Amino acid sequence: MESTPPEEVYVDEFDPKEHQGCYIFTPDGEEDRPTKRRKTKGKQRAAEKTAIVEEKCPFPVLLDGKETESTLRLRYRTYCKLWEAQEKRTKAILDSFNSKTLDDVSAFVKDATPEKYEGKIPTALVLAGPNIASHELLFQQLAQRIRNQDKTGPVVALASKDATNLKTTLRKLIRDATQQDEGVDDEEEDIIRKSTKLLNYDLQILQTWCESHEGQKVTIAIQDSEAFDSNILSDLISLFSSYLDRIPFVLLVGIATSVEIFHDKLPKSTIRLMRGNKFDVERAEECLAQIFNDSMTSDKAVLRLGATVCDFLLERYRDHTQSIQAFVAALKYAYMSHFYANPLSIILGFIDNADGLGEVLSAEHVEAVRNVPSFRRYVEGKMAAKEVGEVRKLLTDDNYVRRTVAEKILESRNYGIELGQALAFLEIGRSCTLIQNKTPRYELYAKALSGELQTSPSVRDFLMSLKRMNSTTLLNLLEKVMQEVQAPAITEPLRPLQEKIKKLVEEAEASGGKKNLISEFDTTNNTLRGTAVSKKVRLGEQKSSLTKQDTEYSALVQQVYTISESYLTTNFNSSQHGLQNVLLHEILFYDLRSPHSAVFAPRPRSTIERGLSQPQDYLACSCCTSADGEEVGIRGTQPPTSIIYQLYLESGALINIYDLWSAFYSVIAGDEEDFDVPTAQALFYKSLAEMRFLGFVKHTKKKTDHIAKLAWKGI
């Protein structure tokens, strides 16, 4: 057979072995071989435990270094305590989410056998919805339920990124299925060892494993069926069908579109090999609403998000991530950021019981309280009310400030609780009306904090619909309010009206009249056309057709409308009841957007370019900074990669490596004539490899001794 010359293949990828051709230098005065260490496992473990106990608090010392060690640790313990409670509630919501789907799919997998489905593959079509980010959580819950609780057998999750070809998919399937069992004895290992002569993508390996694990089913979960290659998926299903008498396969197929589209994707011959049921899944927005309501508007929440951060997180959820886990991670980061940088956050540890708060607050804490903007507005309000004595105590008496903080912090927390109850009342009211746009509570939360909700169409449309409700709808609304809203300001005045409406309905039914009372404000049967005179005539005819119970019901509806309008106006009025008027709201509400935007929506390119072009901004060293603060240009004291990058900016599209090396050596050597050339070469090769790793340069075929420029600063 003739041998063909090998073709020159160029692979433009990062080679991790490039850096291996570097020099190693040992500083003078150090031994080449380290001293031998005795193996002391017991002592080492004891030392590790002691180190964990005596580990320093990860939070920094605040108040210009005057914060004591006790308050520093108290701040960290408060953060751990509050977030642990919030995380526990969030985990409970996530575990309960899709509980019905989990129960149904779990029961399906338990009862699934090829005989029951006429020799076809038992298949569960999980209609998970268009939110792809929520599919991962759902299939994780399914895998944990089937594997750990039901102990039905191994669960292998296959994603489209893992199924580049059939061999790779089978290799992953066999590896994941056979490695999930932890209780394999020696005899079972001998049985599995017999299959080592087989190829690692041969399903006979899995067949041998199933023979040693009788009663175990192999559940294959395909998360994103739409992204799967149809040919690979069809071949997989055909293989599963051929091995079904030896390997008890069960398929879980995640569908984001519809069953019809899934059927159109596969050949009919493949569809005939499957038999099963379809299962609907709750929407991810409902899970987000539950987590948000628990962490922001419930009475259990202690730290809440401000309007700016809330808008940023919800915008990022809608437009980018659509992931519940990402939202929970951002919420945890908000907790951490608040306690990390706010020395007054220790007050949140005494939110339920203020005993001992005065002893914890030092003079520096009191001074920090006086510098809070809400405290300043509080003092200015006292000054406007001519309470001069009160103002003098607040500005000069530290003990009086401590007592004021202990008294007012609970009132400030009640603002968040009352606002959450008002939002719950508005959400319930809008859900009982015919309003098409059902805005969730988390969409209204930021508007309520910023004062935009009072004049928004959400409140206005609800109040107008409230006056037109019939007795059945209004009683349903009042019943939900009594069950879900724990605000005496709205429930106590509405409860007697609810009883009167029930009594009117019973009287109407007893007299043989209609069971559903209508209000005189109900104009659903009226047309929009007509003159002013005709409208007055129709209105008069409508009022004359009302029964006695309808007239009394209309008066009660007007009272419900008045109470509801007053309640919503009081809680959503920004001038009287807004967040800015709440004392010490900076402690209870976290509203700094910049840390979140820098972490969850970073701009790495500008940061890298600045770090390489101006390293003195990050290193803060005197050798790279001029005395007058101006730009210093290229200096030999700068990091080698920074020198290469600044020379790179001055070059064209193709860079001669020798010219770049000459310029680099002249900069790094400076005035030293006997600068070590091998050291400079090692630094040059290392910096050039880092530039290629960052994506600034690549090799080119145009000229062998040149590299190509890939990025220009600011473009």
UniProtKB/TrEMBL annotation:
Which InterPro entries does UniProt cross-reference here?
Answer: ORC3, ORC3_ins, ORC3_N, ORC_WH_C
Which Gene Ontology cellular-component terms appear in the entry? DNA replication preinitiation complex; nuclear origin of replication recognition complex; nuclear pre-replicative complex
Q: Residue spans with biased composition (Basic residues)? A: 35-44
Protein location: Nucleus
Extract one GO molecular function annotation from the record. Answer: DNA replication origin binding
Q: Which Pfam families match?
A: ORC3_ins, ORC3_N, WHD_ORC
Q: Which domain of life is it from?
A: Eukaryota
Query: Does the entry feature the keyword Transmembrane, yes or no?
Result: no
> What are the recorded Gene Ontology BP terms?
DNA replication initiation
| All residue ranges annotated as the Origin recognition complex subunit 3 N-terminal domain in the record | 19-347
**What does the UniProt keyword field contain?**
DNA replication, DNA-binding, Nucleus, Phosphoprotein
| Domain Origin recognition complex subunit 3 insertion residue range list | 360-591
Spell out the residue ranges making up region: Disordered: 22-46
All residue ranges annotated as the Origin recognition complex subunit 3 winged helix C-terminal domain in the record: 605-674, 679-712
The entry's function note states: Component of the origin recognition complex (ORC) that binds origins of replication. DNA-binding is ATP-dependent. The specific DNA sequences that define origins of replication have not been identified yet. ORC is required to assemble the pre-replication complex necessary to initiate DNA replication. Binds histone H3 and H4 trimethylation marks H3K9me3, H3K27me3 and H4K20me3.
Q: Which family does it belong to?
A: Belongs to the ORC3 family.
The annotated subunit structure for this chain is: Component of ORC, a complex composed of at least 6 subunits: ORC1, ORC2, ORC3, ORC4, ORC5 and ORC6. ORC is regulated in a cell-cycle dependent manner. It is sequentially assembled at the exit from anaphase of mitosis and disassembled as cells enter S phase.
What is the name attached to this protein's record?
Answer: Origin recognition complex subunit 3
Its taxonomic placement starts with: Eukaryota, Fungi, Dikarya, Ascomycota, Pezizomycotina
